[in-house]
Input
Amino acid sequence: MKIELKNNKIFFENEGQKKEIHPFWFRERVNGESFIDEATQQRLFDPTKLEEDIKINSLNLSDQFIEITFNDGAYTKFAVQNILREFSNEDEIKKIKKVEWDSSFTNFKNFKFEDNFFNEKVMYDALIDFYKFGFVIFKDVPTKNNFITNFANSIGSIRRTNFGEFFNVKSKPNPSDLAYTSLALAPHTDNPYRNPVPCIQMLHCIENEVNGGLSTLVDGYTVTEKLKKDFQDYYNILTDVKVRFQFIDQSVILEDWAEMIQLNEKGEFKQVRFSPRLDFVPLMEKNELELFYSARKKISELYNSSQYRIEFKLNPGDLLMMDNHRLLHGRTSYDANQGNRFLQGCYIDYDSTEGKLKHLKRKFNL
Ligand SMILES: [Fe+2]
Output
C-alpha cells in the first residue's frame, strides 16, 4: 500500500491497483485546532455544509506526511501511516482470530481480580482471551453488595433487561424459569427473543456449597464449523431459515425472528441462537420442514455432546464472562439439600469490551 501524487491528485496504490482518492475525503479529515476540538477529537465544522467541488490546490508528500492546501483555503497535514491504516480497514477486534475449542480445552488461563485492574494491561490480556475463546474467568472478585454491577460498569455499561439490572440465580420455590430450580440446564444461549440479543453474559459465583451444579460451556463457533464441514445441507438450512423466538410473561411479549446460525455480510459466522423451549419454526413446505427438523436435531446433538462441552465448578468469587452470541452455557443438576448455590448474572454489550480493549491498546501502546 502506498500513496502517490500526480497533477494535484492523490492516488492510493494497493496490490497493483491504483485509484484516485476523492479530494473531499481528505477535506473532511482536515485537522488542526481551527477544525478539530483537541480534547474530544470531534469536528468543529459540518462537512455536509462544505462546497462539493472541493479541489486540491497544492500538495506535498514526504516519507511520513502529506500536506494539502484546498481551493477553499483549508490547509492540513496528515500522517501517511494514518491514511494507510484507514485503507487497510482492519478493525482491532476482527483481527483477533477466534480459536476453536472442544472438551479437550481444560488449560485456559484465569485472571485474578485486583483493585483498579480494569485499566491495567492484564485487562487487555483478559479481553484478548475473551475474543479468542469466547469466555474468560476472573478469580477473587468481591462477592458483597452486588459487586457484579461495579465489575460490569468498570468494563462498560450494564445492559438492563426486564429481569433487571442484574439477576440472582438460586433454587427457589415456585420458580418462573428453570434457571431457578436445581435441575440440569442443557446448553442454550440467553434471550434469543430479544432484539438485539444481549452480547455478553457475566455470571458471578457468590456461594457454592453443592457438589454438582457444574457450569458448562460449548463453543457454538466450533460446532458451526463442524456442521459446515460435515453436514452442508443442515448448515445451509440453519443459516437460511428465520425462526421465531418468543418469551411471554405477565407484563411483556418479546419476539424476534432470526436464524439459528446467523452469518455476517461476508457469509462468515456471526451468531448462534439456541433455546429449544422458546423457538417456533415457520410453516414451510413439508420437505423443507423435514430437512429443518433433521438439521435442528443434529445441531442439538452436537451442542449436547460431551465432545464439545467443558465443565467446571465456579467457586465463590469466580466471575465467568461469556460471549452469548458465540457460546452456549448450561449447568449440571445438583442437590439443593447439600447447601446453597447462588450466582448473580448480568449482561453487557460488545461496545463495552471493544471500547475498553481499544482504549487499553492505545494506553499501553500495544
Ligand atoms: Fe442462561
Observations:
- The CA atoms of residues 208 and 341 lie 4 Å apart.
